[in-house]
């Protein structure tokens, strides 16, 4: 096992709308599409498409078996995914507006039925030095972090969706933080407003987690990398966004995938930026994630 993504698997119901529905409002959608999704699934597929051996661990209901097929078609090993017969798979209701932005309502389902026995069984298949990629859409996250650290795994955390559960984790064990400016501010207990100082925010994170790598995704402004020795800003590639649902997951998968393939930090950041830019030009979550050859050869205008 080279990289394990222990995370969510969702069935995404994506509604194309003129604008996000407001309190007390009823609107009609232009159309409905059903996609595979979940931050864990998206990141696993991005990792596999980035060219690294990828395993996924998590839980689905019987209604989610097609999610396994889609991951396997992308090259993800799904032997560590539990199929439960007493609960439905997680799902998401996604509104995608005319600007390409989205808002998401999650139902945890089987993603919230992870057991410590399942975690222990998965960890027994890992080796010291393997990477584990985590998000915040499954239960038993603290136990997973503790066991991953105990087993000598490199821990990558994307603290999304951000809530109190993240602050209660043993964050000192995290080797890579992959997060946006809002999540960074919430971890630090700060209100990040428009026009914030990116470097100041990154330095504050480094002060809290001096042994970790910090990668801040900044939307149209690109992404910033920081560790104990260096920091730099990776510009974004300019494209016309259609659906931003899996942009951050694509960036995470391609950056960690690049690091695992032995790329320099700068090259890994560039590949991640290219991949996420391609992803936002397409509808859907995991179906929007490009393959490695496409990322390498894509010509941006």
Give short descriptive properties of this protein:
301 residues, alpha/beta, UDP-N-acetylmuramoyl-L-alanine:D-glutamate ligase, nine-stranded mixed sheet, four-stranded mixed sheet, 10 helices, globular
What is the secondary structure topology, with strand pairs?
Layout: E1 3-6, E2 10-16, E3 31-37, H1 39-49, E4 54-61, H2 65-74, E5 76-84, E6 90-96, E7 102-107, H3 116-123, E8 131-134, H4 141-150, E9 154-157, H5 164-167, E10 176-180, H6 181-188, H7 198-208, E11 213-217, E12 223-226, E13 231-234, H8 247-260, H9 265-279, H10 292-297
Summary, kept brief:
With 301 residues, this protein is of the alpha/beta class. 32% of the residues lie in helices and 25% in strands.
Following the backbone from N to C, one meets helices and strands in this order, namely: EEEHEHEEEHEHEHEHHEEEHHH
Number of strands: 13
Strand pairing plus helix content: what structural class?
A: alpha/beta
Overall 3D form: globular
Distance between the termini: 38 Å
Q: What's the arrangement of strands in the largest beta sheet?
A: 5-4-1-8-9-10-11-12-13
> What are the segments in which pLDDT stays under 50 over at least 5 consecutive residues?
none
Q: Predict the CATH topology.
A: UDP-N-acetylmuramoyl-L-alanine:D-glutamate ligase
What percent of residues adopt helix (DSSP H or I)?
25-40%
- Overall number of structural domains: 1
CATH class: Alpha Beta
Largest sheet: 9 strands, mixed
Count of helical stretches? 10
Q: Mean pLDDT score, rounded?
A: 94
CATH architecture: 3-Layer(aba) Sandwich
Gyration radius (Cα, Å) is: 18 Å
* Beta-strand fraction estimate: 15-25%
Oligomeric state: single chain
Q: Assign the CATH superfamily.
A: Ribokinase
């Amino acid at each position: 096992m080279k990289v394990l993504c222990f995370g969510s698997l969702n069935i995404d119901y994506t509604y194309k709308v003129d604008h996000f529905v407001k309190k007390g409002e009823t609107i009609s959608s232009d159309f409905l599409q059903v996609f595979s999704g979940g931050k864990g699934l998206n990141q696993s597929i991005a990792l596999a498409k980035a060219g690294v051996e990828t395993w996924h661990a998590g839980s689905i209901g019987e209604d989610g078996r097609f999610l396994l097929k889609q991951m396997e078609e992308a090259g993800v090993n799904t032997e560590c995914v539990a199929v439960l017969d007493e609960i439905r798979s997680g799902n998401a209701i996604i509104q995608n507006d005319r600007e390409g932005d989205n808002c998401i309502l999650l139902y945890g389902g089987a993603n919230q039925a992870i057991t410590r026995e399942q975690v222990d069984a998965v960890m027994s298949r890992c080796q010291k030095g393997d990477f584990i990629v985590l998000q915040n859409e499954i239960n038993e996250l603290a136990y997973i972090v503790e066991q991953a650290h105990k087993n000598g795994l490199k821990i990558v955390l994307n603290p999304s969706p951000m809530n109190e559960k993240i602050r209660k984790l043993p964050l000192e064990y995290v080797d890579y933080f992959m997060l946006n400016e809002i999540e960074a501010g919430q971890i630090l207990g700060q209100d990040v407003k428009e026009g914030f100082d990116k470097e100041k925010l990154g330095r504050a994170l480094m002060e809290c987690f001096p042994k970790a790598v910090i990668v801040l995704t900044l939307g149209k402004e690109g992404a910033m990398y920081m560790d104990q020795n260096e920091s730099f800003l990776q510009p974004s590639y300019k494209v016309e966004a259609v659906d931003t649902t899996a942009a951050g997951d694509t960036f995470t998968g391609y950056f960690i995938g690049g690091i695992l393939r032995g790329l320099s930090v700068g090259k890994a950041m560039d590949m991640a930026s290219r991949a996420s830019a391609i992803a936002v030009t397409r509808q859907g979550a995991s179906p929007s994630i490009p393959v490695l050859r496409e990322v390498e050869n894509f010509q941006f205008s």
